[in-house]
Structure formats: structure tokens, C-alpha cells
Amino acid sequence: MKNIYIVFDKLHSNEAGGLVSAYASLIQLLKDDYTIKVISIINSNLTRHDMFSDCEIINVSKHDFFPRMEIISDSLKSFKLLLLLKELFKLLCYFCYIPISRIKMKKFFSSEDIIIVSSPAAAMFMSSKNRFILEIHTKFEYFWGTNKLGRLQSKLMSKPYITVFRTKSDMEKASKYFNSTYSYNFINKELFNDTVSIGEKIRKHKIIYMGRFGKEKNLPKMIECAKQLKKQIPDFTLDMYGTGVLVDDIAKLIEENDLSENVHLCGFCNDKNIFDNYSLLWLTSDFEGMSMTIIEAKAKGVPTISTNWGDGVFEVIHDKEDGFVENTVEDIVNRTAELMNDKELLINISKNALKNFDEFSKENAYKRWIELLKRFEGELE
Fold it and tell me: Which residues in 218-257 are b (16+ Cβ under 10 Å) and which e?
């Protein structure tokens, strides 16, 4: 079998969020057709990964100098000079390693290898001689808009053969500039139990959030939504699953707003059947690519109330049919209260969410990926 190499700038643990989960699913999808190996340009300190158990992990650098931009920002605000200097040194090493990595990558692959690069950040470390597929896991504007870090990464990256976006709308925006296509995120429904008791869920005023505690998720807005919802639905609960640099900040906001009885920080969870316990998913992100969490919730008949994080939101949520796209705190709260007070409406929306899950099935994803890879292989020959 031919080799597929999946390249990260740094491979993170299984708690890192949707990116790792997306590639764990892709590996399972393609492992019978290809030998799949994972490359971490920066030392991940991993030789095996819980979610990539069948794959060899190759660390290119011997050292871990991955910079955390959140830590740089926070240490600037809090005047933590030593921590700031440490992260700035990592940032310097990170960019200085780009030419070294490009030399190594030029010699690493054979002419028949298929290379999938996980982000423009990882593509910065690829040689211009490498022919590779680039994946974009956030919206188009992050890398080709006003975001300074995203624009820098897109300018420094080596040119891909083809770029795969998560949504049709992002693919169409990119088609003016380079060879692009799209492939929706997907999940393997075999990982879920077959029990979907929508009637049971709607009797509970329970909301779930599942994802990283990162700045782009705008979780302070979610806490403000919870504060306002308490005035209308005093017995609601919001369980927040995930890890990240903002956990302590969110915990502080929960306490300051007297929400400890309603809002709970539940840590990392990889059990997809956890959605059985909830009637709604909240998402307040400023930007996404194609939210895995919305798809996972759909598989269990749980509708989402989400902010408009990009044009792609309307490809995963059919507004007012299987979920809702609302932007303001007031609109999110009023929509949530409406659903919690209207049993019949919530049941209908939940049934539609379950019905529309098939757009993101493993079978559809397999067909699309095989077509893409065969096309790529044909260009290599």
C-alpha cells in the first residue's frame, strides 16, 4: 500500500480539540487503503498517540519549542517577564527552524508518497519541492483576511497542490486564488450507541458545550448568556466539557456571576454518547471551520444554538429547521427559553437534527476522500 503522511507543526494530545479528533477519524477512514504515518515537525514528546494507535509518529525536531500565543498575550498583560521571555524565545526558535525543516522535508518523502498537511502553520515547514494537500480547519478569512497571525502563516507557507476546506462557501472564496475543494468533517456513527430518546431529553433544561477553552470560542459570551437565561429558566444547567488556557478565567466568571449551581466545568470528555443527557448545544464561537461538535450533537438528535461564526454555519445548521443561528446574547437566551418552554417545538427541531446528520456520514466522506486522493495520485504519476 502507498504511504500517506499527515503533517502537523506539533502533534498535541487527544485533549487538544477537534483537529486531533478529525484526523483520528480520517485515519480510521483510510487505513485499509493506505499505510498512514504521522509527522510532528516540532517534537511532540509522543511516540504513540491514544487516538492514532495504529500509526507511527515521527518527530522531526529533537526539541519542543512550540510557542503558545495565549501565554505570550497573558504574560504581557500580567507583567510576567520570565514567562514572556521564555515564550518569545520559543517563538524565535519556531521561525528559525523553518529553513532547517524545509531542507529535511525535501529529502524525506519518496515520489509516490501522499502528503496531507494539517494547516498553513505546518505548511510553513514544508519544502517548495514537496507536492502536498493542505487542509484548512477554520474559516477562509482567518488566513486570508485581517487576522495578522493567520495572514503571516499563509504568506510563509509553501504552495500546496490543492487546498481542502471544510465548507463549500470557503472553497468558493478560495477558488479565485488557488486550486481548492472541500470535504465536510464527518463522524463514524458506529462510535455512538443506537439509543436516541428525544422525548426524555426535552424534559431536562440541560445545555452542553463541548470544545476547547480558547479565545476563538468566545466563552465569556456563553457565560453572559447563562447569566441572562437564569432570569427566565432558573433551574437550567450548562455543562461545559473541554480543556484549555481559559479554564481558570471561565471558572472565575462563573463564580463572579453567581452561576455555580447552574454552570459546571466538567473537564475533557471523549464519550460521544454524553449528548444523550442534554437537550441543546450552545456554541458562541467567533470563528470555526466546520464544527465537529455540531455534527456529533446531530448524531444524537441534539440541536444547536450557535453564533454566526462564518458562512459555513449555514451548511451544518439549517436555520430554524434543525437548529438556530443567533448572534446576540439576547437572541440566544430568548431562543433557548422558547425551546425549553415549548416541548413540541423542541421535539420537532431535535428530530430534524437527527434526520439531517447523514450529510456528514462516514460513507459520504470516504467517497469524497478516495476521489481526491486518486486525483492527487494521478498528478504524481
Answer: bbebbbbbbbbbbeebeebbbbbbbbbbbbebbeebbeeb
Q: What is the CATH number of domain 3-186+362-380?
A: 3.40.50.2000
Helix (H/G/I), strand (E/B), else coil: 44: coil
Q: How many CB atoms lie within 10 A of CB 261?
A: 11
With the C-alpha atoms ordered 32, 35, 40, 41, is the resulting torsion angle positive or negative?
negative
> Can you give the residue ranges of every domain in the chain?
3-186+362-380, 189-360
pLDDT tens for the chain, 381 residues: list them.
899 999 999 998 655 567 888 898 899 999 999 999 999 999 998 777 777 777 899 999 999 999 988 788 888 878 888 888 999 999 999 999 999 999 999 999 998 999 999 999 999 999 999 999 999 999 999 999 888 989 999 999 999 999 999 999 999 999 988 899 999 999 877 766 565 666 666 567 999 999 999 888 999 999 999 999 999 999 999 999 999 889 999 999 999 999 999 999 999 998 888 999 999 999 999 988 888 899 999 988 999 999 999 888 999 999 999 999 999 999 999 999 999 999 899 999 999 998 877 788 899 999 999 999 998 887 655
CATH architecture of the domain with residue range 189-360: 3-Layer(aba) Sandwich (3.40)
pTM (2 decimals)? 0.87
